[in-house]
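Let's practice the habit of predicting before peeking. Look at the sequence and jot down your guess about where helices and strands might fall. Then scroll down.
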Amino acid sequence: MDATFTAEQEEIRRTLRELLLKRCGPEEVRTAVQTADGYDPALWETLAQQLGLPGLALPEAYGGVGCSVTELALATEELGRSLTPSPLLATAVLSVPLLLALGSEDQRAALLPRIAAGELTAALAVPGASLTTALGLTGDNRGDWAGGGRAGGVQARQTDGGWRLYGQADQVLDGHSAGLLLVAAHTGGFARSRTLLFLVRGPLVRDGSGSAGVTRVRLTSLDETRSQARIQLRDVEAELLGDDESADVDVAGVLAGVGDSAAAVLAAEAVGAADRVLERTVEYVKQREQFGRAIGSFQAVKHRLADLYVQVQAARSAAYYAAWATGAGEERVGGLALAQALEALRITSSEAVQLHGGIGFTWEHEAHLYFKRAAGDELLFGPVHRLREHAADAARLFGGGEVAV
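Done guessing? Here is the structure:
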């Protein structure tokens, strides 16, 4: 592994940081999350058309840039620094790899160029609150989380005209505004129980009933910068992702692979947020005075900040390695990096609130936004102890027998 970034990778970081400094400050973030989309469409258009962010890790054959997970992680690190609300995570990190891995050539040719151009956003909808389970981050994803033939979840039924879906999915990232839904549904009953992915296209009306039985409502979430929605499907026409010959593909394995790479990208995003909130805290303790001197000059404060710096840098190293390793085909590294990054962000943001004193608790200051991002991501993709527990179980660290290499 070469830990040195190339000139192109550094350019991605520099260009994106300069743009976000100009167009995505704390006030712009607060304004964006109050819009119907939950993000700034004009900024998203710039990110997509001028910087090619949604197609960064897409092959050039589909209109993408042809980069790897590493470049995508560097981009999300910058988005994490400013807590930029955008559909990048739902579209480019979760949905695009599934379209590439499972979609038919016709589906890829029809959808991926539009995604790369920023014309189409996508969202992954899994039953209930099972996102972390579906991605295989905190446990085996080969269970009955998609429905298991019982009431609840999302059920798929094959008819003469195709497939029909019925059920509900919660915690769908950017599901209220996405133009394309990738829905995980249970099919086959008990005789041939399996989970497949389906495409729901067409005009989807947000915050109400959409066409053909789709209802999607934006939820009130702890972290407003990470929009979530509830999707209800009532006898909805859907299209199998892939073709009939690929219906026996190991969908759970593909989801777990996407979960591993997504965890690496999320880890980089969390590191960016932790790094930025630490920078702001260091700036503040240099200015705030107590007993006639800056509080940053007190040894106790210095020690706390030094510990935070070490923790953030360790998380950054883990995130960078995970991004490189998942791109190189190594498995089960993203979850551990995500655990370390989420822990670093939670501790750093909570210390930032404390060190900012009274102002750190106020709605007007941005410190609470970073703390909510830390708490919200742990609810969505963690918690940290379960991420580590699953990694340890997969490596058979405490189960006896030969340790996996």
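How did you do? The chain has a mean pLDDT of 90.
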